[in-house]
Fold these 3 entries.
Entry 1:
Amino acid sequence: MALVGNMIHEAIGGNPSIVNYVMFVSVISMLSLFYLIAATISDGFVIIPILPVVVDGLNTLFFLIGGIALAAYLGVHSCGNIPYVTTNSVTSGSYDDTKRCHEGQAVCAFLWFGFLTYLASLAFSAMEARGGSTSFRGGIRRGGPSMSQV
């Protein structure tokens, strides 16, 4: 979020829409984390059992779209390539285009990392919503008492 905010702050003549979308994704992610952390700590915050799955699914989708779009806008070039840095729509538009290029590439990496973490969170939320537990023990009597409870 701070990297994107810095890209927006240092822009000379506005930003491409992908930079604004990535800022939207980071803000939505932060706001939804307030709910998801509270829902994880206490079941009282879970209003509808499917709501954490929906929130995780939306965050996963937003991060996937942001990662694909930013990677497509950036292309795969070195930030030391001055003709690329000065002509790319994401990296140009700042007094220090090379710094902006490095920030854009770092944001792209964070988007893909966030996608993977939200995908894992989505899997755990889906297991919890369907009534199962997040323990990976199998067995015949899944919902029944274990030996320590008998």
Entry 2:
Amino acid sequence: MIRQDFARVDPKRRAILDPKKKQFASPSYKPLDYEHRLNFYTQPPTAEITLEQFEQWAIDRLRILAELEACSFRNKTPSETTAHIQPLLQKYLPLVSNTSQSSARHIERQKDHYSHFILRLAFSSTDDLRRRFARVETALFKLRFQNDDARERQAFVESLNFDWDVVTEEEKRELGPDLMAATPGLKRLEDEGWFKVDWERVPELVENRRVLLRRGKAYVPVREQTSMVVAEFTARLEKGLELTSRALPRLDEDDRLTPILSHLSKNFTTPDSSFSDSEPHLPGAAINAASIDTLSQHFPACMKNLHTNLRKNSHLKHFGRLQYTLFLKGLGLSLEDCLIFWRQGFKNITDDTFNKEYRYNVRHAYGDVGGDANRRGRGYPAYSCQKILTEHQPGSGDAHGCPYRHFSIDNLTTMLQATGVNDRDVLRGVKDDIDKKRYHIACNRVFEWSHKGEIRKVKEDGTWGAADLDTIVHPNTYFKRSYLLKNLGKAGRDGDEMES
């Protein structure tokens, strides 16, 4: 007789397994309601989004963070920073209040939540990136906190359940004279309340001597609640970034996310952007082979250097030609005019040599020849500042690249002075920016000095807003903005938007 094993599963019958022993159980996540416009980002996102949303949401947030950092580098006041950032927030990262009936409220808060955590992944790899990310995210949170509705802001703070010790009436009376002395503008002790926290949690208040310190505790008046909330936000964010950095090795196996995150982290040096070839070109501007010399007065330093070297040597090496050709293409120069421009520039060679060695490359950059993908895509896009800074480093005899990064400070100073930049404060500021590797800020500093009169005029007239004068991160934007400012009233302004 064969002994039957009742523990075995009959292959002809469906197995009924103990649910406690399931190897792959579907996780049940708590849905996020986003009750408040402000967010401490303590709960990681769990719902699914597309790869396109993953990348675009992160890029939009990176634009805001880059502008905040640029405002800091330029020593803008808090009011100037708020005026500059608010229009950009409305454009790229809007958040409506709880009283709004907008149907987009949930998706706006979801975008804000997800984009924070995506960039947290991208900027957790090194200590430097973590410090910079924490600094600009704290600045963004502080700006939003200060400009939020008072009632909603208080409801948000109460929802956080901070472990702040409220100073009792007895302790208040005991420390009354000291508390009064440490709180400027306070006339009566009964008019203010205090919290008691570890002094390390409010370093900004300690630094500015706005709190009383006693036995390792800081006595913080209620009016300084913003500093306490911001300090708590920073502490939690830094802890979260440290935990994220430990989990990063697990992401190496996902070949979909790693390239995107790597690209985002590189863009924290200079935000990447591409100039849209579909934009209308400058009205009233004659852009042809004969006008490039005249238009070169509006070129950024990188393109001005290429143009000067071409006119001086009647030649540019491969990457210099490619960088300059794509820039001219972005200006609206037609393929026919571009070929004429290069043929006239390479005046020391014969037509046969030009046609054999250089003509095809120009046509390929415009998408006139090459594979189907190149022709369908109309060739290559114009190089952004980020691409110029990070790719194809120039060698001996090369003229491409970014002068603010690849020139010695003496050569750069000579070049800037030759173009009319003689202000000592500007040159000193450029040197300081370069020492701190803020190359695009140095370029923007020169632009703002060269166009200071025109910028003041459009600000006073109200014809240009903060979004029209945001940080330049593309050579073609530099040219277009310079041309429009120098020709105010002579040409209409179609805007100089950048699309990523």
Entry 3:
Amino acid sequence: MVEKVYVTYNEVHKLCQASADRILNDFKPNLMIAIGGGGYVPARILRSFLKRPSAPNIPIQAIGLSLYEQLPSSNPSNPVETPGTKVTRTQWLDFSSLEMANLVGKNILIVDEVDDTRTTLEYAVRELQKDVEAAAQQVGSNQSTHFSIFVLHNKEKAKKGHLPQAMMDEGRYLAARTVSDVWICYPWEATDIDEHDKLAASQAKY
């Protein structure tokens, strides 16, 4: 049976708050790219903690990637999902509203809720790097664009995907918390938030 861990909005808020100084001081992001749908809420919360007086808010863009698929369950009200084998691109940067050239030479923070198999993160970094490199060639720029990653939870397990070695060596990857290979239930996935919070309150602290 899959062990489930229920995470509350308060816990997400505090994980973002605890990570903000490291992100601001080490990553120095000019832009956040949230991977939907799990990265939307953490990115928005994080932006409040990254805001500095007299400085503008860090812009947030969104991409949509899907990897998980639902498994048959004996309890229809308690479905179980599992990582799939293929990343599906459901949404990408809108080149008409955000020119890729504007990303060249920037520090870009990719935000997601969980690093499970790392397949989605690998895809996001690889494809975004390709797009930015193409844009740099078009404008004749040799400026370096630096990608960093922030996730709420990293699952301690063998990963199928791989991130650039330079990113890992330079410490441009940050997980607010590392957990065992459990199924994490986030509050934005709940259809009954009161029941979700009750389950979170009744469980042992992870």
